[in-house]
C-alpha cells in the first residue's frame, strides 16, 4: 500500500504551498517511494488522523504516523536505508539541522514579510479568518501593514543569502553534485514564495535562482508541476 502524505493547501487543492510539506514531498521522491497525497486547509489539520498532530506534513506509512518534515526525513532514512540517502551520513544529518535552523531563522521570516497577504488571498473563507486572526496576533499588526513595504525588502533578503550564493557558485547543490535533504529544506522556502505570490524574488542570473531551477526539475520535475503564482 502506498504511503500517504498530508499536505497544506488553500482554496485550490492542486497547489500545496507549505515549505515543510515540500521538503517531505521531495524527500519521498528522493527515496523513490510511492505515495499519495491528501490535502487539508489550516482549520482541517486538527482533525487529521484522529488529531494526531497540529501541524503538517504528516506521513502515514502502514500503521506508522510521523509529523514534522525533519522527523519524516529521519524516519525515511532509518526505515528505507537501501534507498538513496537523504543525508549522506551522520555528518550530513547534523549539517542539515544547521541548514534548517538557518533557513527558518533567516529566510522564512523575510519571505513571510513578502507573501503573507498573498497566502491569505489564496485561502478558503474559513481559513482566511483563522489565518488573519492568528497571524495578526503574532505580528502585532495587520497583514496589510506587515507587507506594506515588501518591494523594499527583497534586496535585503537577497543580501542575507550570500552564504548560499557563494557555495552554489562552486557546486550544483548543497549536497555537492547531487541534492540532499539540505537542498530540499532551502528549496521549500523559495517554493513557498513561488507558489503563493507573483512577487519576483530571485533575479535571473543569480546562482541561487539557477539552483532553484535545478531543484524544480528534480524527480521528473516534481516541484515545477505546480505552476508559479500569477
From TrEMBL:
Pfam families, sorted: GST_C_7, GST_N_2
Classification via InterPro entries: Glutathione-S-Trfase_C_sf, Glutathione_S-Trfase_N, GST_UstS-like_C, Thioredoxin-like_sf
PROSITE patterns referenced in this protein's UniProt entry, alphabetically: GST_NTER
Domain of life of the source: Bacteria
GO biological process, one term: glutathione metabolic process
Domain GST N-terminal stretches: 8-84
A molecular-function term among this protein's GO annotations: glutathione transferase activity
Transmembrane segment boundaries: none
Keywords, alphabetical: Transferase
Protein name from the UniProt record: Glutathione S-transferase family protein
Amino acid at each position: 500500500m502506498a504511503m500517504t502524505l498530508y499536505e497544506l493547501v488553500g482554496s485550490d487543492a492542486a497547489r500545496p504551498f507549505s515549505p515543510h510539506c515540500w521538503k517531505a514531498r521531495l524527500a519521498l521522491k528522493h527515496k523513490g517511494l510511492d505515495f499519495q497525497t491528501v490535502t487539508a486547509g489550516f482549520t482541517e489539520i486538527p482533525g487529521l488522523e484522529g488529531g494526531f498532530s497540529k501541524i503538517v506534513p504528516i506521513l502515514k506509512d502502514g500503521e506508522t504516523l510521523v509529523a514534522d518534515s525533519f522527523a519524516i526525513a529521519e524516519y525515511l532514512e532509518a526505515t528505507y536505508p537501501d534507498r538513496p540517502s537523504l543525508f549522506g551520513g551522520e555528518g550530513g544529518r547534523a549539517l542539515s539541522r544547521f541548514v534548517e535552523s538557518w533557513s527558518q531563522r533567516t529566510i522564512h521570516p523575510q519571505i513571510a514579510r513578502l507573501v503573507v497577504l498573498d497566502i491569505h488571498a489564496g485561502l478558503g473563507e474559513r481559513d482566511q479568518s483563522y489565518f488573519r486572526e492568528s497571524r495578526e496576533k503574532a505580528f502585532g499588526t495587520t497583514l496589510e501593514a506587515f507587507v506594506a513595504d515588501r518591494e523594499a525588502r527583497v534586496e535585503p533578503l537577497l543580501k542575507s543569502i550570500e552564504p548560499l550564493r557563494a557555495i552554489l557558485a562552486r557546486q550544483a547543490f548543497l549536497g555537492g553534485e547531487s541534492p540532499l535533504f539540505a537542498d530540499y529544506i532551502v528549496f521549500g522556502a523559495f517554493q513557498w514564495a513561488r507558489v503563493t505570490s507573483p512577487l519576483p524574488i530571485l533575479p535571473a542570473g543569480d546562482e541561487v535562482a539557477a539552483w532553484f531551477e535545478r531543484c524544480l526539475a528534480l524527480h521528473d520535475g516534481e516541484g515545477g508541476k505546480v505552476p508559479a503564482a500569477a
